[in-house]
Amino acid sequence: MQLSEFAAYPNLVAMFLARAEFFGERPFLWAKRGGQWQSQSWREAADQVCLLAEALRHLGLEPGDRVVLVSENRPEWCIADLAIMAAGLVTVPAYTTNTERDHLHVLENSGARAVIVSNAKLAQPLLTACLSAPGVGHIVGIEPLRRMQSERIAFHEWSALASGDATLARLSVGARVAAIGRSETACIIYTSGTGGAPRGVCQHHGAILCNVDGAAHILAEDLGWDASGEETEVFLSFLPLSHAYEHTGGQYLPIGMGAQIYYAEGLEKLASNIEETRPTLMVVVPRLFEVLRARIMKQVEKQGKLPNYLMARALAIGARKADGRAHILRRLIDAPMDFFIERTLRPKIRQRFGGRLKALVSGGAPLNPDVGLFFDAMGLTMLQGYGQTESGPVISCNRPKVGLAMDTVGPPMRGVEVRIADDGEILVRGELVMHGYWRNDAETLRAIPQEGPNAGWLHTGDIGHLDAQGRIKITDRKKDMIVNDKGDNVSPQRIEGMLTLQPEIGQAMVSGDKRPYIVGLIVPDGEWALEWSRAQGEKFNLAALQDLPAFRTAIRAAVDRVNKDLSVIEKVRQFAFADEAFTIDNAEMTPSMKIRRHKIRERYSARIDALYKG
Fold this sequence. Notes:
The termini are far apart. Helix 1 packs parallel to helix 9 (about 245-255), helix 11 packs across helix 15 (about 370-375) and helix 12 packs antiparallel against helix 13 (about 330-345). The chain is α/β, with parallel strands linked by helices. The chain has three domains: about 5-25 and about 35-210, Rossmann fold; about 280-355 and about 355-475, ANL, N-terminal domain (Rossmann fold, 3-Layer(aba) Sandwich); about 480-610, ANL, C-terminal domain (GMP Synthetase, Chain A, domain 3). The protein contains 21 helices and 24 strands.
């Protein structure tokens, strides 16, 4: 296996089949069944991909037809995705959290002709939507489904479609795949909709292969990945595969690397799954890092003075390294303590992540620099990436050889051009850029103008600049930027990130557009609130606690601590409590854990407005 191979593959299926031929009976996909981790080899997976691809064609599906895929992360997700593409069709991943209305939008907008769904629970809202989507003619159940009465829709069982003569299927698939070029659409991924109805991003094979190539070079050149295939990397997949970040970083990158993929049982079992599978690489969103940081700090706090002292010293040493104060003399002074921490505290922290983790890769949303510094100080390599669905999705990533600056998202990846527009917007060009939004020429032209000085460049909607080392530093989303009544620009993400680092605050959203000052909507941290209620002798009821003056005073103290480090125009002058946490289920958070500002503003508009009265 050579690094140069990634640039030569004509499509994603060709890359997979080449890897399957090379690795043969080695383990590839892992899932927990009956309490035990069970593996599927590369050869077994390739056989299933080819058989399913041929079965889909025999259903009457034609080149370019769209197939919606609805499933939790599991081996069949990967096999279905590859099989759809191997059949010359286009995968349309959909979130497992979609409502019937969400599914109907995806089905109708994509013009899907078939659906693959994993189980009866996920099928419930989907099947009703299929009845209203005139194009859907076939439904494939990975597990047995209760069949509804319909003259238009035919039901099929996965086990029946993925069986037969694999050798013959491979020959048919091989001939078809050879004709699929890098510029052809591989999938249509619907954006998570932080600002409105999701739009279908047309990702071509070359866009994802460009991402895989860039990421593989970073892993080889900066982290010592052995591209020969002798050493097997291990990924633990738990972010939704329907999101571009996990689709590329958690599926096609490990396929390209010849890695093993374990599928986590869910967020509630993630900690135990990490210890069991001992991953070497993990693709994670910032919100999870924030939660893990808080838990680690609480656990260390309970262990006595020495562990707390060591953590404080580790963080201080890490901060000095990060801001450039670790000159030779300082490094010599810190060296004995750093050595002692490396032999005592850090191994225990690393063991919680399985003990052989090479890097944690953060993406999908901005990472608070303090969170990155924490994990770096604990001896875990943290690489923050940046991108969006429209770019494959990865544009840049921090590289140890360039220098890990936690307030940047690193230099552009291999094959990616970046420039900064006159208004500060980050522009991107390269094979990774989408060919457009599905059936939405107007939005495509807004994102990639064809006229003017920046014609042909993807307009990311992010504001930022390049530092002296060529690393991208993002200051905010262009559309999220708060402009107060005096015309000052304020970054909401920076303030929210600082607020949620306080132990008292679980989530926050700040507002202040065209207003005289910034206000906040606060969700108290549940664990902290429980401890506070016990200490105060109060019954734990989060809604009732918010009416207590003493509870509000405690939260106010946390806000005031943040305000000390903010400028006058950034300070949070007033705040209100949200009725509940921002979640995917209440549509106030995207599956990649970003808050949906427009939804939260709609729900709490009266409460936010009241903060400016009196």
